[in-house]
Amino acid sequence: MSKEFDTVRVYIEKLKALESALVLFEWDLETLAPAGSVERTSKIIGALSEEYFNCLISSELSQAVYNAKASGRCSELETKILDKLEEEIDKNRRIPSKEYREFAELTSVSAAKWQEAKLSNDYDIFAPYLEKVVEFEKKFAGYVRTDEKTLYDVLLKDYEKGFDVERLDDFFDKLKKSLIPLVKNIGDVTKKIDCDFLLKSADIEKQKKFNTFLSEYLGFDFNRGVIQESEHPFTTSLHKDDVRITTHYYENNIESAIFSTIHETGHAIFEQGIGDDITMTPLEGGSCAVHESQSRMFENMIGRSKAFWMPLYEKLQAEFPGLFADVEIDKFVTAINRTQPSLIRTESDELTYSLHIIIRYEIEKELINGNLDVKKLPEIWNQKYEEYLGVKPEKYSEGILQDIHWSQGSIGYFPFYAVGNAIAAQIYAAMDKKINVEKCLEKKNIKKIREYLRENVHRYGMSKTADEFLKDITGEEFNPDYYIEYLTGKFTGLFM
Ligand SMILES: [Zn+2]
Q1: DSSP readout, 424-454?
Q2: What is the secondary structure of 297-341 as a DSSP string?
Q3: Which of 4, 19, 137, 264 is catalytic?
Q4: Is residue 106 a contact partner of residue 133, using CB atoms and an 8 Å limit?
Q5: Distance from residue 265's CA to the centre of ligand 1 (Å)
Q6: How far apart are the C-alpha atoms of 100 and 335, rounded to whole Å?
């Protein structure tokens, strides 16, 4: 390690310490903190964020990064770390700190207004705030824009490099062409599927025990991780040896906790598998789409397969005889894969999920690049739901107001949920050629799958882009055909 890089490392450690404190507060607010603590604790969080921001944009750090790069003595990985830091510094410096603070204040208010609007089913409460968020996003994108073709491209790049409007348009056009007719053809068939047994009462304590077992079975290392409960399941981590996930239990919906636990475990296994050289550096974690590819591969491609349940189903039946004693495994697998066009993205099934994303993508793109009037959004939203999914929201709360993202200023994030699905299918196909995934699942050999993913994906964290990962693993760049083939094959096989 070069002497110059050592100087930068001191800053990296300080930034990491501040970031860890912020992550811990966030985790605490979602899980254990008393409700009354929010106001005062948010002041502590504000002070820590400011300290983080000041450290990041300090001229001393910029100088240290410059010196390290100029020395020519850094390793390839160190250079990647420096590049990533430089990118963060540059982005944050271009936005005037006064406006940055204004935006932070705006989003905390607009998130609260969104909540209020959703609860009272009144879009007008939220619309003026969304309008301001969009204005800020456009302005900020303008500040940091370099060679991107459109402003929305700038926002997209922040979440995943290499995926601009041109490429996403292409991806979503392909998806629409194959998914919309497939969903329409299958929709009526799955209406008749019996899944009432999944909604019978299941003891919460028993659910906890079973989900902990599932998570461990998949390879979550409890010596370096914990599971807690929260309203909305999520994963967070301080570093590879402290990875935290949450889940949410419903007495009359055993499926919900099972699949959100598997999903978050997929994220967690990624975090716990990050290389020793990457953890605690700015390259820790994974980009949006790559991270989501791992959670969705575990949740859907693995967790909803018959091969996965074959060695586990007797245990599930024994733990919950009231639900499953008389249900054959095939009936169970059919039920957990039933598909039905619906209004709510987070409750949608594997087949229709990406259609929910396309709607959000098309609206975001117009909001940022076009002149879409925020007041008209509910109308456009409803039209698209009718066109793509054949359903129409009766209330704002089950339509335009269902997701928190825009109120928090996360515009450009949604498309990568769908890209993540497609990346999962592409990686799975390559992995399957090497290790025969179904056979591993039937033999309870999850370790082989996990080791393949650790070796090819997890250990690299964010040191590779999605395209670099795909090229190295599959020999080609992002190719959505794998995803379309997978969905078509799976769902026509199950239901047609
Ligand atoms: Zn996720």
Answers
A1: HHHHHHHHHHHH-HHHHHHTT-HHHHHHHHH
A2: IIIIIITTSHHHHTTTHHHHHHH-HHHHTT--HHHHHHHHT----
A3: 264
A4: yes
A5: 10
A6: 48
Strand-pairing partners, residue 246, are: 228
Question: Residue 129 and residue 112: Cα distance in Å, rounded?
Answer: 10
**Tens of pLDDT, residues 111-124:** 889 989 999 999 99
Distance 264 CA to ligand 1 centre (A): 6
Cα–Cα dist 93/98, whole Å: 11
CA gap 441, 219 in Å, rounded: 13
| pLDDT tens-digit readout, 330-347 | 999 999 999 989 999 988
All residues at 6 or more sequence positions from 234 whose CB lies less than 8 Å from its CB, including other chains: 30, 245, 246, 264
Residue 1 is predicted with a pLDDT of 66
264 is catalytic: yes
Task: State the pLDDT confidence band at 35, using cuts at 50, 70 and 90.
Answer: confident
Whole-structure pTM value: 0.95
Residue 148 token pair: 């991107």
CB atoms within 10 A of CB 292: 24
Ligand 1 center–CA 69 separation, angstroms: 35
Rounded to whole angstroms, the Cα distance separating 156 from 413 reads: 7
Q: Which two tokens stand for residue 295?
A: 């959670």
- State the distance from the centre of ligand 1 to the C-alpha of 295, rounded, in angstroms: 6
Structural domains of the chain, with CATH: 3-148 (no CATH), 196-337+416-495 (1.10.1370.30)
Smallest CA-to-CA distance from 163 within 472, 415, 485, 456 is with: 415
SS3 226: strand
